Amino acid sequence: MLRIEDLHVKIGEREVLSGINLHIADNETFILFGPNGSGKTTLLMTLMGFGNYEITKGRILFRGHDITHAPIYERARLGVGMSFQRPPTIHGLKTRHLVRMCSRQGEIDVDALARKVNMDEFLERDVNAGFSGGEIKRSELLQLMAQKPYLLLFDEPESGVDLENMKLIGHTVREVLTAGLEPRAGASMKQQRALRRPVSGLIITHTGYILEYLNADRGQVLYNGHLCCEANPRDILDHISQHGYQECVRCLN
Amino acid sequence: MEKIELKDFRFSGSTLGEVADLRTLDAADKAEMLMSGIDVEERERAGSYLQVDHGRVHCKSLQKGVEVLDIKDALAKYDGLPDYYWTQVDKDKDEFTRSAAENLHGGYFVRTEKGAKVVEPVQSCLFLKGDMIGQNVHNVIIVEDDSELHIITGCSVAHGSKGAAHLGITEIFVGKNAKLTFTMIHNWAESTVVRPRTGGTVQEGGVFINNYVLLKPVKDLQSYPVIRLNGQGAVARFNSVIVAPKGSHVDTGSRIELNAPDTKGEIISRTIASGGTIIARGFIGGNSVPAKGHLECKGLILGGGVIHAIPELLGSVDGVELSHEAAVGKIAQEEIEYLMARGLDEEEATSTIVRGFLNVDIMGLPKELQDVIEATISESEKDMF
Q1: Domain range spanning residue A24?
Q2: Per-domain boundaries in chain B
């Protein structure tokens, strides 16, 4: 799905990512940990192709395409989708209209999708205008459900979300990542998986709440622009919640 | 702004004569009229008034409860309309008002009956066809107590016009608990000079909503309608959408006077300079309490030009609540990138944001008119990015 090779990224004069190597396989969910300022958001923004992030070395391969220097919309159309942590408000643009534009495969039932994330009452409101933390997440998920990307990039799906919303968001993230895969009569899950489109996830989390709702395969810590400590995400979380990131300091220095 | 020499224009001698069926008009003229909201089929209209150059060509009331007349006929029928005519605009304000007073060519008189809810809009078009024509019109709108009316007025020039001057007086009277929606669409040309002079009053519980759309080039336009909210609970709202391409000089704004308790005024303007100059004015005066006013003028400069926003608030009593919000800037890169991350290319993203910015939706216009405006916006986007 995604292969990142020796990626170096600068913001202005400062190198924020220093030689990132990462491979995410089809149907795999990868969790990224790391303290504030370690470069996690930079990695996601670079994968999406935002302007302020300058790639000085390395490359990004997505489903066989070299997207290192591709414009944002080309990545989106190839199937990279991102949930923003703090998306901008767009005045005069109705959420319904944006959701419809997200789907490039033709007409979708916007109302049915919106009901799934409890956003049906927001469809006639301007995009992100006065939305609470939970509403922003639900709106982002709604757009992603319409967009149907192969690779989902989530920047802290739990930030600013209350417990009630967390459950809905957790279940929806899971649903988007499994793309409706569940045991059913007629076809085994293995057969279903072979037939449907592959979906992978790259999720940044601080609190790990999201791990309650999905089965993440692998995790790693991003510290000071370097990726380290590959392990089971729950083990990483368990360690960080007890000891913080001290071990990274010891390990990397 | 250059000085307008009225003597350069012809103020007499161009009349077309009566056109009974608007569908028989010249195809090119019809196309221009369509862009300013005129439905030549008159299917969903409560009445029509059409003037070309110096005289009326068509005038019809199509529904009960509303009277549409040529102003000259109205002056004859109602003894010169002493309670209305030249009461809202000062005849001696400037050379343009004087020109209209001295040599009246026409204009519309629209009056509702008391209590009549006129659902379909009345349409009017003041059209400039001949070269270097100067047109003086005087319009009077009376919305009697408890009645409702929507007027769509389009002003237009013939395709390829080499020059024209439109001087228009409009006087508006909104009665008690009455409602007027007044939608004006200007569809001029690079060579047209325009000087509307508008004033009106709103009585107790009355509502006045003014929508103004100017998307096409105009050489020089200056307009500053004044609405006085004289009755308790009266409300006025101005929504303007203005685009000034290269060569356009647009000096426009509106003034609301809150002269009675519980009055509310709102002025919202969205302007885009794409090479031209826009002076976006707004004035709300609070002279009675409780009263509220809010002014919002936002401008984008896309591809050159000047926007000069002049929001003014004047409070003259304790307890008045007035506020304003003004901004002149560019489209935020963050917004473009957000939409690009959803698969829109840069041009689609920019265009989506511009449409949202102009937000014609809030005017609540009939669908076909909204479509015409959207189409005109996408055409004018060529100059913006």
Answers
A1: 2-252
A2: 1-195, 224-330, 331-385
Nearest CA in chain B to A88: B335
The CATH number linked to A186 is: 3.40.50.300
Number of cross-chain residue pairs from A and B with Cβ atoms under 8 Å apart: 64
Into how many domains does chain A fold? 1
- Which chain B residues are within 8 Å of A48, Cβ to Cβ? 341
A204 phi, psi to nearest 5 deg = -95, 130
Residues of A in contact with B377 (CB under 8 A): none
- What lies within 8 Å, CB to CB, of B112 at 6+ separation is B65, B66, B67, B118, B142, B143, B144, B147, B148, B149, B178
Cβ neighbours of A76 in B, within 8 Å: 340-343
In the structure, what pLDDT confidence band is assigned to residue B99 with cuts at 50, 70 and 90?
very high
Q: A45, A85, A93: best mutation site toward chain B, by most B Cβ within 10 Å? A: A93
Q: What is the pLDDT of residues A48-99, one digit of tens each?
A: 999 999 999 999 999 999 999 999 999 999 999 999 989 999 999 999 999 9
Residue A127, C-beta contacts closer than 8 angstroms, at least 6 positions apart: A87, A89, A90, A93, A94, A95, A98, A139
For A93-152, what is each residue's pLDDT tens digit?
A: 999 999 999 998 778 899 999 999 999 999 999 999 999 989 999 999 999 999 999 999
